């Protein structure tokens, strides 16, 4: 079991590469948390053993840290020479248009995937609505023919079944897409964090 100093050192190491204010804020928070627990009579090592491990905490902090913060920190520390600035300005019609085209393509692809998920939800709603309408229409059709009424009942059951199955499928697709989005965002964040950690 770790004591406070060991835990905070582990945490500091796990948070390496994140913005300094985030690191300090997190370390201060956990230091105070441990101190308060010890003041309340808890055993320091036992209390620390009950906390999340340093990597889990660092992962959560990374997820909560915006990409904008990471990029701002990255850009803030850069000093460009005059020739580099001239190259950036002169080359901007080329690299900027390529960057915009790539970003637009990726955004279009992402929106397309989401539109498929939305379409699946729309189809699911259509099945559910068909089931409801078939049930509503059944008494009116029953007057004409029992066979038609049974057909409508069968249609309602089939549509309801498809709607239920479709709903779970749609939710699964949406969850996977959200997880994929979070995965990509996390990867982008870790690129900046690793870069900073290597520099430290």
Explain how this protein is built:
This protein is an all-alpha fold. It has 2 domains: 4-75, no CATH class; 113-198. It is built from 7 helices and no strands. The longest helix has 63 residues, at 82-144. The radius of gyration is 28 Å and the shape is flat. The mean pLDDT is 84.
Sequence stretches where pLDDT stays below 50 over 5 or more residues: none
Whole-angstrom Rg? 28 Å
Average pLDDT, rounded to a whole number, is 84
Structural class: mainly alpha
Fraction of residues in β-strands:
under 5%
**How many domains make up the 3D coordinates?**
2
- Largest β sheet strand count, sense and barrel closure: none
Please, what is the oligomeric state? Answer: single chain
The count of strands amounts to: 0
Span of the ends, CA to CA: 28 Å
Q: Helix coverage percent of residues? A: over 70%
Instruction: Give the topology string: H per helix, E per strand.
Output: HHHHHHH
Number of helices: 7
Overall, the morphology is: flat
